[in-house]
Write a structure and sequence with these properties.
Distance between the termini of chain A: 52 Å
Helix content of chain B: 55-70%
Strand order of the largest sheet of chain B: 5-4-1-2-3-6
CATH topology of the largest domain in chain B: Nucleotidyltransferase, domain 5
Number of strands of chain B: 6
Structural class of chain A: mainly alpha
Strand order of the largest sheet of chain A: 2-1-5
Distance between the termini of chain B: 31 Å
Number of domains of chain B: 2
Number of helices of chain A: 30
Strand content of chain B: 5-15%
Helix content of chain A: 55-70%
Shape of chain A: elongated
Number of helices of chain B: 11
CATH class of the largest domain in chain B: Alpha Beta
Strand content of chain A: under 5%
Largest sheet of chain A: 3 strands, antiparallel
Radius of gyration of chain A: 30 Å
Radius of gyration of chain B: 22 Å
Shape of chain B: globular
CATH architecture of the largest domain in chain B: 2-Layer Sandwich
Structural class of chain B: alpha/beta
Number of strands of chain A: 5
Largest interface: A-B, 48 and 41 residues
Oligomer: heterodimer
Chain lengths: ~600, ~290
Amino acid sequence: MNIKIQSTAFNGSKMLSNVDVFILSLSFASDKVEQNQPLSQRALSETKAALLKALADIYPKLQLSSVSLSIASNDLERLRSLRIVPDAASLSAALVNVALHYIATELDYQPSADKDPAAYLSSHEADFKQSFLTQSQAEISHPSLKRAIELYRDKKYVDAFSLLNSIYSELGTRNDRLEADLLSFMLRLKNQPSFSVETETAFRSAAKSLADHPDFVKRYYFEYIRFLENVRDFSRPQKLLQEFEATYPLSLLSDSELLLLHHLKGRAEYARGDYLKALDSFADALTVLDPQDQQNYAKILNSSVNCFNDNLFFDEAEWLANKAKGIRELLNLSESFESLSCLAGIMARRGEHQKALDLLKDVEAKSSSLILTAAEHNRLYNYLAKNAVFCGLYPEAEDYLAEADSTGIHKGFSAQIRLLLLFKQQRFAQMEQLFGKTFMLPENHRGEHAYDLFALGWAYALMAEAAFVQNEFKDGLLYLADALGFFLKDKYILEARYIALLPLVYCMPDALLSIFRETLAEHQLAELFAEFVSKHSGIASIYYPKYNPQADEISTPSTLADFAQSLDEIDADHYDPAIIKQLMQGFCLV
Amino acid sequence: MYYFYDESGNWSGRERFRLVMGGLHVQEQTDLNRLTMEFKLLKASHNLAYLHANEMSKAALEECFQIIASFLAGGARAYLRIFPPKILFESTRMSFEEIYIDRAASLVSTMILGDKEPQIFYDMKFHYAYPQNILSGIRQKKPYYYKRVMDAHAIKDSVLSAEKTRIEAKIKKVPKYELASYVQQLAQNEEQAVSDYLWSELILQVQGKEQARELFRAAILNNLKAYTAALNPTVELPSLNINYIAKNNNNAGVELIDILCNLVYGNGSKASQSATGAVRNIYQLMTIEENEE
């Protein structure tokens, strides 16, 4: 419920603040534990005293002497963090109104139809006594509803559904009706193979009507998020969590809900290329993980692998992927193919493409019995194609690319691998043709159908390299400058620094090299890379022990730090292109 | 109202101890005038060019702490935030500077929220004049107003050697790949090379601060917009007046918050056992927030 309160900012300015406040529980039993208080003890005491006085005016005969109150409010927490102090009297008066509204709503008060809550309450004294003084309003009172919930927990969904339908009309309390609605929604999810507009509408409608009941709302949110996760819908859950977090405090969440939240946040951060924030979120997930919960442990391990792998911590990434794979195989979980796929990614980045290809073929076989999403299908066949290219298996790569294209996903990755295939075959004219039809088109650079910046960066880098091979240095320089721009736009600092070595490998003429160096300085690439290395070279020592506490202390410099050190030692005037080429072949970033 | 800001600790990624950021809020110009005069007298009696904790005698420092304690007791408010150095290493996508701006903007917006005409004075540390940038800047064409001054001035013999040593130390960290021909130029015509470096450095300092201040202003306004949208959409956003002040410019507000940031950097959120009465008073009067993050 939204209230307006007088408040004072840090500098003494007076202001009126709009604040959303939710009552989690309100009880007249003296032993009730109060929790999640965004209020100071003083403000809480004043509010309770004022509420008892207001109720004494409404029900003079009842002589209520104590009340316990649990309140949740993101906004009150925000006020505190902004050092804004609510005026005590104003806050207390507003909270009393919220509490009266809450009590009235529990007694079926309809704000649009009925008069004000106090007047409504005074004409419903018997209901008040029944709901608040003789029974706990948060408990389920109908025995068959309790039984239906038990049946659901025992996975007897058909029986639960029949029983629930048979008792709906008998449910007397509001709490019972809300519990029954939630159970009905949960049963609906069990019967749903994938996302549907109808289910989304049902969820939205329940979340809207229960906006003032965060305890119920959160259960709807998390049941729905878990369902979407199970049907492998990875984008909606993150949006739902953002929505939830914007309105309700996280202190409402249980450990298992927090685990889900941190895990999804970590995945979202990884997807936007923030490895460090992702690892922090995964570490938070590990802190609330039940040690017996191996399935979720494997999920977190698997999601973390690429944060290590992308920053060249191959041994640690391999340990994480193998551990996740072992757990999943032991529990006979179908997701074990994801861990195999991660292992293949590690091999590919190490430059061991044959091993990667073998693993991916295994993934292909294992996943044939599963329903992969279009994105997963596309990714799998792109990976197969890329590794086939590096193994020189060009016709095989063509077949894989055709399969990847069949998904209808066009983010530029398949086109980029096709460009790589043509480059490896030295078919430069065809490369130009393909490039002209795909990566050069403005609509693929921006807007709704834009290619991924990573794919754009690599496509332009490949075109630059092709130009260098043909001694067309000016063209190559133009492509390379664009590639740098794409990588840096999305903060792919390692990739940008890596491709910046190409002019040295191909001995670009001094005049052009000088222009290129100026471009690098304008981008501040050396500084950006130095900062990137200083931030990321500690990933293994900081985060790896959180997953593997038995691991030996890491004392050797990371591949990333080694790479940076080697770059620092390159002499601008006397370098050996062969050594730089060897440096670039130390790992594979494409 | 008037607001003064400073920070302590190395915000460019090389801090092991703690990072501190602080703000001072003063209601009236008259209070500020009084503080300025008290600091002037303190400097005169102890023969100081400016106030810096590390460069004052024990007696001068204690006197300074007494002035500050009584200033805070009179209604001015100091608000300091302590951060662990790891905050700089928690995002791939945000640079050290962006994290610094984010934290600084958060402190400023919290303190000025509700003030319609805040006067902000900031002693900012931004790191734009990197040696690589400077070397690259040497090759670039300069605006005519700089070029005119550059052509009319020559480097003094008395500073040439010291500047050359400083530059050599700075560019040691530059990868050889980036150094190109500058080392050669320095060996062949040191006067020109040193002069070019100094001008390039100056121009970058000016440009960098301008850019940083724009980002800083935008970050503060974004925060204020977000706060007001969440709490009271009818509140009008203030017109921001941000002034860049170096602490050796003798701005009393900036000097005071600089001293407090250094104090908290050294002692943390609690006064040390051996602290004097004035320091204990200051600790009681400051608002200190320790952010574990």
